[in-house]
Design goal:
There is one protein chain. This protein has 402 residues and is an alpha+beta fold. It has helices spanning 7-25, 37-53, 135-138, 147-160, 193-196, 222-305, 324-352, 357-401, and strands at 57-65, 71-85, 88-98, 108-111, 117-119, 164-166. A four-stranded antiparallel sheet has the order 1-2-3-4. A two-stranded antiparallel ribbon has the order 5-6. Strand 1 (57-65) and strand 2 form a beta hairpin. It is rod-shaped and about 135 Å long. It starts with 6 loop residues before the first helix and ends with a helix. One of its GO terms (biological process) is protein transport. Residues 323-391 form the SB domain. Residues 267-294 form a coiled coil.
């Protein structure tokens, strides 16, 4: 009986994965994942596209320990990566960790060999700890790089040079699924290929996440070969269309991100402008309250003193000097200012042609002489006032000393 189609069970699984990613990426507070808010949507899209292209890899959240000892909760795609070796499909157990700066920086890929597996010695892309280094990770470029292309690149590299093999078994039993031996290093090893296949075999096991049936030996039926080649070409065309569509969507997303950044910048400017206007409004309101208070004080004083000054006030006797020197200084200052005003009036009359130049020069000479004497007298009076102040301060010193 033929197995049921995989897409029947794939729909609930895809819905579950979508709900899981939406939940973990929308968390806030201490339990939130350490990804930037503007990249969480892109992370979700990358993982959904990965699950759609490779159902054997399922996203989950787990603790990741950095080389410096820090432990953080990160997203990972855990499962198996399919490869083709010797016309047989095998599955390599691996984990793809999305670090904190993803997708700006590449993820970290680790192989997860079980107790029955061993990592190939001196593999060019996998070290003894299972850490994977491939050109796609080294040349990671945001935003064009993605998880689907990464897994496709890993599948191609590992198909050419498998990184995992089964451990040696002195009494091997016939395997249920054929396992290939590593490629011979020289032509002389072709004669011993049957004996070496029992000592070093690549591990092959289906991931619990995938619905792919167990790998079988390819048939030599020409119709089957033609069908498989046609399917591969269709898949390659679909992958190319998906990659082109993804690139166009990434360019559109980048434009939206740039627009979002510009909108945020303008929002900050508007917020700052509104805050400054509110502060200025508060300052003006305080000044208005002060003016109103002073107005009330002046109006009260006018109401209280209204009618008290019924007789005309002699402006010359409004200020009463305290001593003779102060009165003399007041008279000198008043005479100086009056002479200044008279000279100004003569200048204006001269410019208008109201008086002849001979009269103007004669009067200016007389007034300037009088102004000079008044200013000289004011200087002497000021010096006398300073002497009186100094003498008064000296007379008070014994009083303060006692």
């Amino acid at each position: 009986m033929a197995p049921p189609p995989s897409h029947i069970a794939a729909a609930p699984a895809a819905q579950h994965i979508l709900q899981f990613l939406s939940t973990v990426l929308s968390q806030r507070g201490p339990s939130a994942l350490p990804y930037a808010e503007e990249t969480k949507w892109l992370i979700r899209q990358h993982l959904l596209a990965l699950v759609d292209a490779y159902p054997s890899l399922r996203p989950q959240a787990s603790s990741f320990t950095h080389n410096d000892g820090r432990t953080v909760n990160l997203l990972q795609a855990d499962g198996t990566i399919p490869i083709v070796f010797g016309n047989v499909v095998y599955n390599i157990p691996a984990s793809i960790w999305l670090l904190e700066r993803y997708p700006l920086s590449p993820p970290s890929v680790f192989l997860n060999p079980t107790r029955d597996m061993v990592i190939k010695t001196n593999h060019p892309h996998v070290d003894r700890s299972g850490f994977v280094r491939v050109p796609y990770l080294h040349n990671w470029v945001y935003p064009s790089s993605n998880l689907v292309d990464l897994v496709r690149s890993l599948s191609q590299i590992f198909s050419n040079d498998p990184p995992l093999f089964s451990r040696q078994n002195p009494n091997p039993s016939p395997p249920q699924n054929p396992v290939p031996t590593p490629p011979p290093n020289s032509a002389s090893s072709s004669s011993s290929s049957s004996s070496s296949s029992s000592s070093s075999r690549m591990y092959s096991s289906l991931s619990p996440y995938t619905a792919r049936p167990p790998a079988v030996r390819p048939t030599d039926d020409p119709a089957e070969v033609y069908r498989r080649n046609a399917i591969n070409k269709i898949l390659e065309a679909v992958h190319a269309d998906i990659a082109a569509l993804r690139k166009s969507r990434e360019v559109e997303i980048e434009g939206l991100f740039a627009t979002q950044a510009e909108l945020r910048r303008r929002e900050q400017e508007l917020t700052r402008g509104v805050r400054e206007m509110l502060e200025e409004k508060e300052g003006l309101e305080q000044q208005l309250q002060l003016v109103l208070m002073n107005t009330d004080v002046l109006e009260g004083w006018l109401r209280q003193n209204d009618g008290k000054w019924r007789r005309e006030v002699d402006v010359d006797n409004v200020f009463d000097p305290v001593d003779v020197l102060s009165r003399q200084m007041l008279d000198c200052t008043a005479a100086d200012l009056s002479l200044e005003d008279t000279i100004y009036s003569l200048d204006k009359a001269m410019q208008e042609g109201s008086i002849p130049s001979e009269m103007y020069l004669k009067n200016v000479r007389v007034l300037s002489r009088e102004q000079f004497f008044q200013r000289a007298l004011a200087t002497k009076v000021r010096a006398a006032q300073l002497q009186v102040q100094v003498a008064s301060m000296a007379a008070r010193v014994p009083h303060y000393a006692s």
